[in-house]
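Reopening this ticket.

The earlier resolution said the output was attached, but the attachment link was broken on my side. Pasting everything inline this time so it's all in one place.
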Amino acid sequence: MDKINAVITGIGAYVPDDILTNEDIEKLVDTSDEWITTRVGIKERRILKDKNLGVSYMGIQAVHELFEKTNTDPKSIECIICATSTGDYHFPNTASIIAYQTGCINAFAFDIQAACAGFVYGLECASNYIRSGQYKRILFVAGDKMTAITNYTDRTTCPLFGDGCGAVLLESTTEPYGLIDTILRTDGSGLPFLHMKAGGAIRMPSYETIDNLEHFVYQEGKAVFKRAVIDMANVAMELVERNGLKKDDVDWIVPHQANLRIVDAVIKNLGGDINRVMVNIQKYGNTSSATIPLCLWEWENKLKKGDYLLTAAFGAGYSWGSNLLKWGYDS
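Inline output:
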């Protein structure tokens, strides 16, 4: 029997129209365009201004684009997985809302949460459903409304984040394409350095937590920076080596867009060619789980069937990982 694999056969994405520039942030906190650009490499980010819209809205737009591009019948989708840290509600899951609003009436749906590493975790999860042989067509959506949990009085974090969402269609194949291998890692000792202090069952919302601004991203940047650089590079290199490849065999490196200095340091540690690295952080900022699919979406017309792609991401948890893919189609 031929080996079954999962291959990406299409991608869609959505970023809001409204743009928050560094000049706009200068009016909110004590910072400057030069400071932000030099330290994180971001010039602007997209924001979903409407407070009544969330991740499901962006995911629905991304899925609509994907279905139109691939001429996909929504009823043919068997499962929808959504990777997000900023779901519309604590429950129900955001994937169920996306399924209903896009006409995927035959799909079961659920969310996963791996922070900024959500795409690399979710891609492995979705692919394994297909590899099992039980499912043939799965929709994987990854996105975050990071501006909903960004403190715009904190000069260290408010320049970092933007909103966006990507969606990929995964299908069954017996051809030698698709997700080749994945390595995922977790280190729970990272909790104190990157988390949201309140809003969960440990520290429920209260007047005190609101007054103390505890419902926003809390990050100790130096500690996170050091771990992200080392762990993203190590896991990506380990993945390349265990699949019998050399770094020059990789056609495209797709890193999580957290901070341009982190991206530069990871590429330096990998010894990769910067011309083969997807970088769009200057336009979108850190959109958490959406950064990698937004890169794939932007570079889709440059990808060729058979290209090797190497992803790498690091996020709260600490959670990090890397995927090795063999691209399955010419645009």
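Reporter confirms the inline version is readable. The mean pLDDT is 97. Residues 180-326 form a domain with the Peroxisomal Thiolase; Chain A, domain 1 fold (CATH 3.40.47.10).
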